[in-house]
Design a protein that fits this description.
heterotrimer; A alpha/beta (about 525); B mainly alpha (about 375); C mainly alpha (about 300); A: about 525 residues; alpha/beta; Rossmann fold; 3 domains; 7-stranded mixed sheet; 6-stranded mixed sheet; 18 helices; globular; B: about 375 residues; mainly alpha; ABC transporter involved in vitamin B12 uptake, BtuC; two-stranded antiparallel sheet; disordered C terminus
Amino acid sequence: MGGTVSAQEGTANLLEVRGLTKIFGTLTACDHIDLTIGKGEIHALLGENGAGKSTLVKMLFGSLEPHSGEINWDGQSVRMTSPSVAKKLGIGMVFQHFSLFEALTAAENIALSLDDGAPIGTIAAKARALSYSYGLPLDPDSLVGDLSVGERQRIEIIRCLLQAPQLIILDEPTSVLTPQEADKLFETLERLRAEGKSILYISHRLEEVKRLCDRATVLRHGKVVGHCNPREETASSLARMMVGNEVKSAERTPITLEGAQELLSVCGLSRKPAGPFSTPLKNIWLAVKAGEILGIAGVAGNGQGELFEALSGEVQQTSADSVRIRGKDAGRLDITGRRLLGAAFVPEERLGHGAAPRMKLSENLLLSRYATDGKAFVGSGGMVKNGAVYDAAQRIIKIMDVRKSAPDPEAAALSGGNLQKFIVGRELDRQPTVMVVNQPTWGVDAGASAHIRQALIELARGGSAVLVISQDLDELFEISDAIAVMHNGELSKPIPIAEATFERIGLLMGGAEPGHVDQKLETA
Amino acid sequence: MRLELVKRPQRSMLFSALSPFIAFGLTIVAGAILFALLGINPLTAFYTYFISPITEVWQLHELAIKAAPLILIAVGLSVCFRSNIWNIGAEGQFVFGAIVGSVIPVLYPDMQGPFVLPLMLLMGMVGGAAYAAIPAFLKTRFNTNEILTSLMLVYVAQLFLDWLVRGPWRDPKGFNFPQTVQFNPSAVLPELMPMSGRANLGFVFALVAAVLVWILMSRMLKGFEIRVLGSSPRAGRFAGFSFNRMVFFAFMLSGALAGLAGISEVSGAIGQLQPSISPGYGFTAIIVAFLGRLNPLGIVAAGLVLGLTYLGGEAAQSVLGISDKVARVFQGMLLFFVLGCDTLIHYRIRLVGLAPKLDASPKLEEAH
Amino acid sequence: MDMTVSILLTIATAATPLLIAAIGELVVERSGVLNLGVEGMMVMGAVAGFGAGFLTGSPWIGLIAAIVVGALFSLLFAVMTLSLATNQVATGLSLTLLGLGLSGMLGTGFVGLPGERLPNLYIPLLTDLPVVGRLLFGQDPIFYISIALVFGVSWFLFKTRTGLTLRSIGDSHTSAHALGIQVIKYRYLAVMFGGACAGLAGGHLSLVYTPQWVENMTAGRGWIALALVVFSSWRPLRVLAGAYIFGAVWIGQLHAQAFGIPVPSQFLSSLPYLATIVVLVIISRNKRLTMMNTPASLGQAFVPDR
């Protein structure tokens, strides 16, 4: 391990990358990366969030320009000046954050990445045929905005396959899929390998890499730290390589909730869709008791964002008792009113929702606390006490171990993990009795994730009610006392953690009826 | 060759301070070319434009008269633009404020006394704010584009004024000229130093408004709310700030200041209502607001500069015999350069050839 | 009958500049760019059209000058917003302010001079047909260009691959960039097309509608064209309908003034502006529908990562 390892003997290399480097400002996102991909192999690119995986593949696909280094394709030195060059060579890409157009149909989306100028009708027919042959059925005439994330990914894959690529790059493809949908994807990928295609598979999920991939290249802090055969490694040895040291998972002491007070309850909450492509909420019931962490699982786009907005009061309800905080009706209160009842909220988007990107951290502290800490932060006549706000921000920065380059930098200048630590810390600092968090560790590196998860558990065990919405099942199994599943705007009954399994939750995520799930599991 | 923008990690303090000056310098260069093309010696032209109008004390008074409405309106607009609300109908609010403020001196010319002027000013502000509340209401209630509605209302206000001074409000003893009666002395804005020039209280209003709004924006929670909602509306909603309330606040504040500017202009510099009471102050103030970097104190300086272009235009017309429209051209160019230079605050600009070298050694870029 | 025909003809003449400017802006906005400088480009086209026509004696050269100047003037906006990523709203406003100032300066010497007028089409027999003859075969050349533009743009946007690409950029410039579409290049072309159209619309004012130069002769038509684009939900055929409704309002108030209807002329003159507000209210009221139709990346600056 370590250093450069050439491809297996006898296999011609499809792609060879030497010394590829990319610098953004003062950050070296990719530092002399070496990588070889053979024909007909599934090659994993492993690394935690922020390790430089996405930057690397964007350079391979021509969306980013490297500062230095070389790329060889089929033995020829090439320059990827734009994605169309990469496409011509035979590289196809399935993006993590989809590069689809919501206002266009599936067929139009596909047509846009094909350069042959064939009529849309022909393309639609071809796409339909190909999608069925790979078991990824697709209606080419549907509007992308109306489709689920899983269906959107199918469009991306079909679009990529229609270009008949030699190398297919998939960036974190399973992060938006249910476990069952992921299995289906793996079958497709194995079939493509059998057809002689090469696949670069980017992930931080170790189990699926072990199961699927022939070789792996591991990145950490923008550098290659090793090449290996994932089948010969254990999940924990791969994790060590990725993270650099042992990562402790959060410790969750068991708790009995009998007799504990319900601090957050939602009774029959419904909401009409707000935008053209958003999900309605349908008759949602839930309750979180003091000391409890309730996890809400679900594939992205099933109404989690809408639920968060309804709980936080960014969108208010028509009936006051549909949301109750500490036993008080809160449905018609705005977010400030709910905060004053003791609730705190952490949204999914950090930049632009949880924090104003171009404002300093101290100002971002004021953002959610000018009302709850009105006495401390705002003086007479509405003048802001800048000194007190600054000191409080520094306190949070210290407690949460936020790494930064200036004493009070703009939010946008922080890395995702550090900003998230600040945002979570901003709310924890108030000791809220109810905390609602959407995707607490999305895009956050392992160290910061562990820190945040542990902090949430400690808050709950200190007697608060914590609701965690997450797409990351590992995370929910690590910290929740019970897990409910959101699908298509509906919420399942919570399943106590002792009875929850990946399979059971996964079936609910895919939309199976709760009763159905248990039957299916029995017959399986 | 093409331009490439590289995002800075933090906004550049250096260019925040420099950009208005760079823009002004570029305008001078472009202006020199323009004058040369018109066959005028640029040095003569610049002297006529920027120096000759302020060589005597009474001329400084004239500058204050021109700058006052620009500053008043632009200070209000800075609140709008900071909150990402696009009120471009200040010209209409100026006119409507002037109309409402003139009700007493035109319809009740016999009403005299120390209370008249304050009441007029108040009515002017109320009129401007009310007129600005129309696009705010339409935006919050019907989701209409405030740029278009506020602008359409400018034409409506101008036509309304035109009708008033030619119709019901026309001075019956005015030889059929389209104008109202001259305001009586207690309805006229006092001059600051009548011995040395015409400058009136309007300039003081402008300075006070600038300082108050500066305190609001930089020290108060309300200012924080304005900046959050403007830079990041979703974060503003998360903070519990209401965008709809902000639309009304920003529109009505800027409308009130534009209305104050309107009635001050009419009761100060003009002394009566007539079909045209503004050489486009409401639109020029947009330039003032941006040139002042949307900072009320910067706006005071910018207002003086733009006021000077009006005086320079008049001087150039009489001395050089060129159209006073040249002033408008200057103003337009200045705004263009200001906006272009602002790019430097958030981005570094790189000129790249069509074939960038791949193996160029990585250059560490300066952080600021 | 003759009366009706002549009213219809004047409506067409009043609607044509609105239609052309709006159809150009529609293409610009479909690419995700909001150019509020229509009024400025239009007035530049008007002064250029009048000036070139007057100086050369040929209205056709005036026509070409109007188009070219409109496109060049829009290039200024394109460089600022696309290459320098400036705020589109502010830049569009400044384009309008600069255009009004510059046209006023350039046109100082043209005030009060008689201009050249583009001749109406005349095809023997066809034009002489009763009623339809003059409506269909006897109008000014820009009228025919405007109709061709509506159908041409409609065909381009919805039937060609390039049109699809343009719409995709308006929907999501980041996705388009990820696919290797040259976002900036398309937007440059779209903005310049919009500029050429606005210039042509201005040229119509000073070469057909009232063949003379009057300062600020566009009188807010550029802004009304912007409103028409919103009214149309970004669909070319609806722009056609909207422009003719506004043309009718414009002509209606002029006729009302001429007939001496006992309403002050100023109130009648403000009708087109009030009508614009009313139309905006009606069309924008349904927020969900508006969001659905608006190009999703409209007005946002785009800076590609490299």
